[in-house]
Design brief:
Oligomer: single chain
Strand content: 15-25%
Shape: globular
Largest sheet: 10 strands, mixed
Radius of gyration: 22 Å
Distance between the termini: 22 Å
Number of strands: 12
Helix content: 40-55%
């Protein structure tokens, strides 16, 4: 696998590692073994399911209805960005949520503007989904599993029997170039006879463009190398574009449409977000913006709309300052968060030590970790509701904090504990989806436009 990854693809892979929740923490000393009462409780309460693969019967997933309840947002995490079973299962859960619970929007840890091009394919069939996947700039999503999900979404929408269509959406704000282009194109189209508004917006964006991304997602110059004063001036210029569009709502809506205006205004907001994320002025800004964008998509879906979010375990977590914490504060019980865990297996990742890409394997999880407890149930895969009383001898272990292994996109073998973190799972997630063994995601060849 590593041999066929181009230099550009490795650059994109390394870029995708930023902000991915990979920072290690020192593990607490592990317990020597799993108490028998804990194993018995797991066997009695874990919800086994038959397969991670979508397309079959859903009887084994019906207990999800009780976990999801009336929630309008369901967030699904992943302990690595390169595990086949995680991706397959998220596809399967989305199908279930669409068919059984009326969900309408699939929102991904992917760029907002670039995801709109994928949504056009999902709605109309126009475009090459493999090119559009590469155009999301993340090697992590350029896989057979994600492509299968997208093609299922397209097939669902193409079926006239399905009057309730589904949408592909992005919530990320790391790469602002296409958002800026979208704004300029909108302003130019709103008044072809007078291009002054489009010209002004393009001039204001000029300060950010050298430090933004090219058409392949590569950034050639570092925005953080600029002085604080220069960055502040650029931020004001980018913000002014948004303010001008907001102030001219009546005129612009009349010249275009309410939907077109709303989309352009949001694109201008994404440019503001992108500048801020690139500045690295405020830790956690990316997650705050992802939560803001997910909320916007839910608003667009209307009062009956429901959104499933796909992101890393860290981003969906309800622990401050991650995206999930902002969404929990806003939506409370209207949101459910499911993390993913595995006991052992192989996954795709970037090796930060060797500056290479390929498959990496983790053996059995350390003794005393959450994963070792889950393994003791002797089940190949299961769902576990974490909203339980943890004051009993059989469940006190669940409260933690305990060791978990969290990878994200990247590995650093030179650090023995690079993937080890301690946390309380019930403090971060409503439920866990667990796999005892895992395999790597199926990478596609990048298809650049």
């Amino acid at each position: 696998m590593a041999a066929r990854i181009s230099g550009l693809f490795l650059v994109l892979a390394l870029a995708a590692c930023s902000g991915g929740g990979d920072a290690p923490t020192q593990p607490t000393p592990p317990a020597p073994e799993v108490p028998a009462e804990a194993t018995a409780w797991l066997k009695a309460n874990a919800i086994p399911f038959n397969t991670s693969q979508a397309g079959g019967p859903n009887a084994d997933l019906m207990p999800l209805k009780n976990i999801v309840g009336s929630a309008r947002i369901v967030s699904l995490g992943e302990a690595t960005h390169g595990t086949r079973e995680f991706f397959e299962m998220k596809h399967r859960v989305f199908e279930f949520l669409v068919r059984e619970m009326g969900f309408t929007t699939f929102a991904m840890e992917a760029e907002w503007a670039e995801s709109a091009r994928m949504n056009e394919y999902v709605q109309t069939g126009r475009g090459d989904p493999e090119v559009l996947l590469t155009g999301l700039y993340f090697w992590t999503w350029d896989t057979r599993e994600v492509l299968d999900l997208i093609q299922w979404m397209r097939a669902w929408n193409a079926d006239p029997a399905h009057t309730r269509k589904v949408r592909f959406a992005g919530v990320d704000a790391q790469f602002p170039t296409l958002a800026m282009d979208t704004v300029v194109a909108y302003l130019r189209g709103a008044n072809p006879a007078d291009p002054s508004a489009a010209i002004a917006a393009n001039e204001r964006y000029a300060c950010l463009r050298p430090y933004s991304n090219d058409s392949r997602g590569v950034t050639h110059f570092s925005y953080t190398s600029l002085t604080a004063a220069v960055q502040q001036e650029c931020r004001a210029r980018v913000q002014q574009v948004y303010d001008d569009i907001l102030a001219n709502r009546v005129t612009l809506e009349a010249a275009t449409s309410p939907a077109g205006y709303a989309y352009a205004l949001r694109a201008a907001r994404l440019a503001v977000q992108g500048e801020d994320v690139r500045s690295e002025r405020e830790p956690g800004s990316r997650d705050r913006y992802m939560a803001e964008n997910a909320t916007w998509w839910l608003d667009q879906a209307g009062p009956e709309g429901k959104v499933m979010i796909w992101a890393h375990n860290a981003h969906v977590s309800t622990v401050v300052p991650w995206m999930g914490s902002h969404l929990r504060a806003r939506f409370g019980a209207e949101m459910r968060v499911l993390g993913f865990r595995f006991y052992q297996g192989t996954f795709n990742a970037v090796n930060l030590d060797a500056q290479s890409f390929g498959a990496h394997t983790f053996g059995p999880a350390p003794a005393g970790s959450y994963e070792s407890y889950f393994h003791s149930a002797g089940l190949p895969r299961f769902i576990l509701d974490l909203r339980v009383d943890t004051s009993t001898p059989a469940t006190s272990w669940l409260a933690g904090p305990r060791l978990v292994r969290e990878v994200g996109c990247c590995v650093r073998p030179s650090l023995p504990n690079f993937a080890n973190q301690t946390m309380s799972l019930p403090s971060a997630y409503d439920a866990i989806i667990f796999f005892d063994n895992t395999t790597p995601s199926q990478m596609l060849e990048p298809k650049f436009q």
